[in-house]
């Protein structure tokens, strides 16, 4: 505790009157000295005593306690500052500075570790190294007069702006950069990438490869492309020039496009030689061919369901008047426009995304060759849905055509007519088409009954739903490159009409149609991953009873094995904490997945060269210093008076502010006003006496 004394004044009159009195006293003193009267000096003493009486002086005692200054040590722990030997250089510098700072008396050291801003969505453009925000948080409760200085150990890749308040504190900012100023690195940048595109059409990516820090001119650079992990033909671009690349999307949903540039002549890291774009594939319009047989109550259900979707182009082939019908209708009243049967079932069949046969039977309208075309269409990757009615069990069954080669269930000729609840089988509980259907979790299911089932023998595929006696009701199969589904009842329309509460017909048929058209989200075997914030969520869909562990490859190349736990029938999940931005690759031996953590092309790797660009202005305004640690030794610490030179060849300075806190104050009057008046009166009397002689 320090004790200090100082003179204080508590005037007895206002400042205006006090000023008048002082001016008057000084004037009278000057007049007395000019006239050189015998009592001039006594008059001066009298006037001075009167002024002192008005000033009312006192001795002020303060008990002061010194207050420590605050120094901030900021250590950059971002991913860009872990490249090459920057981690070891950062640790060594931070340890040396910490030791020096702790040895200083009267100095409070606050250390701040700055990491990447990883907790963000993939579409976010924020993040990176928020160094100045971390500094603001660290000194938010520190008065500017107590701040000794800020020392930042960083690579200079900072992605927020220095606030003006830091430049006005008077404390020096020292940047110790973990590298050298002549580094070079190759960087790949995606300048433009569409987020949505039509399936089957090409999208145009604009990208650029730069050899930053290199003195060489433009050179060729090889580009390697992958879509969902599948390689595409490589292309060659020229560095320093924005160029366009076209890529075709083959499926709906997320398409992860990986672009990688070959290593350049000088590299700090290959991480920024890679970039990712995610394009969501959407189908322009789904072309569906609905082939209806005899009119029935469920025919309108199919038509309404398909027509309700604006993305569906429906071609409805229905037979209202079979050729054998003879009812005497005059020829001039019959339509003379022939239905384009050949175009639909021969020329343009491959253009359809889905073909549906609804209670169709052989009637001599479609030649056998056209039905063979449909079977070939399935083998070549097409989708076929057959909704069966009693006709399927008749001698005119469509099964007695070339379509029998692609249908998984053969009719026995029997039609079961009784009320029953459609039940989801054990396999159906695991299959994405029927898993989790609303109402299926109860027993009996919370939906209405059906009253007809076409008995059949299953030869292949999976039975997802069954009727009475465990007879197949919904059977799915893969044939060649295509897919087939059989619905062995024509009573699905009862759910649409709300009979006995109805049922999830729309959801079931929507899933069924999308599975037939190979939507990735409805695949039986799939591995999915999604990074959100600092968590990686993993989901494995399977038809099996168990799944192998998943190997996760992190952006830095290290791997981690993750075991999944069963969350529901056919669904296994896991979560893991992540601490790196970039691509995570997952593989369980049979299935693979790719996802990106943080922004798709993070700022942290946009440029990884050590630079003073972001700190130069602040360093100049605070009279601090910048040092490249690859070229110089770690500086020592000195305390300096505020405003003095804050750096030397081998040292950096921190302000010694000498601030204090007053703990106690006492006041002692030096001369009472009454006593001063007596002195003035006595001096005037002596002056008159001298002048009277």
Automatic annotation (TrEMBL):
This is FIG003492: Threonine dehydrogenase and related Zn-dependent dehydrogenases. The chain crosses the membrane at residues 12-34, 41-60. Gene3D superfamilies: 3.40.50.880. It comes from the Bacteria. The keyword Lipoprotein does not apply. Keywords: Membrane, Transmembrane, Transmembrane helix. SUPFAM superfamilies: Class I glutamine amidotransferase-like. InterPro entries: Class_I_gatase-like.
